[in-house]
Amino acid sequence: MKYSILLLALSIFSLSAIGQKSKKKVPFLKYKKIYYSNKTIEGNGYTVELNNIIDYDGELKFSFKVLNIQNEYILLKGNGTKITKLGTEFPISEKTKLIAPQKSKSQTIKCLGSGDNRAEIFTFFGNSLFSLKVDQSAQKIDSMKIPLARKDFEFNSVKCFVDVKEKSTQTTKIVTTVKNNSKDYLFIYPSRIALKMPDGNTYTSNNSKEVIIIAPNKSGKVTCKWDRMPGGKLNDMQLVVMNLIFDDVFYFSSIKPMDSFSIDVEWNEVLTEAKK
């Protein structure tokens, strides 16, 4: 008899707990928009911020920001990230981005939301960050005579095509098309490309861009320009032969995986109620 009474009491308690749990979920699901608390975590060499996290009437949406706090570039690949909620994983397709040292980049993340896909807590997991370590030594490139005796050169699966767009007393303009067929990223420093003139001096180009980065199996263009040279007729760019110099210009960079991150994001009931 006592056992039956105890069993009945446990059953009533269980039903009451289920009812309370069900009632607890009703306020969460009744809102047209669910707001979550912003989150920030710091990893080894980077910081991740999740902001403006809202579950709308059809999708979960938020801003994903990566701050590069190291001295090397960070590659954010377009895969390797997912959202886990209610026991289901949702792979996220991101945009591939390069983040310069001490800089940041953001993108909008979207995931299925609303109805049965809403969760009070979800996890944002990322395994998509890589560090780009640049080689200490530049690629050795032979100089080229302008006017051109040849229009191309090659090194380690990289092909370069040189086009002299203008050669006059006032201006010389050269465009180099670079096809990176290697497996590594290629760092190019345009301001170091130079012309060696008949006076024996070397003059770097007016291209002030710090670096141009070309991904594996991609192409890019480097434009260099020189204005009228000092030295009068001796250095008249229209009349003289010049040497195009690529010293300390081309560097390879291999990618190294960075630590993954996992962020638990919670529903902000106060904010959700205030925004309704």
What is the CATH domain class of the largest domain? Mainly Beta
Number of domains: 2
The number of distinct helices, counting runs of at least 4 residues, comes to 2
Largest sheet: 6 strands, antiparallel
Low-confidence stretches: 5-10, 12-24
Strand line-up across the major sheet: 8-5-11-22-16-19
Order of helices and strands: HEEEEEEEEEEEEEEEEEEEEEEEH
In angstroms, what separates the terminal alpha carbons? 52 Å
Quote the beta fraction: over 45%
CATH architecture group name of the largest domain: Sandwich
Q: Nearest-angstrom radius of gyration?
A: 30 Å
Q: State the CATH topology of the largest domain.
A: Immunoglobulin-like
How does the helix and strand content classify structurally? mainly beta
For the secondary structure, the number of strands is 23
Average per-residue pLDDT, rounded, comes to: 88
Q: Helical content, roughly?
A: 10-25%
User: Please, what is the oligomeric state?
Assistant: single chain
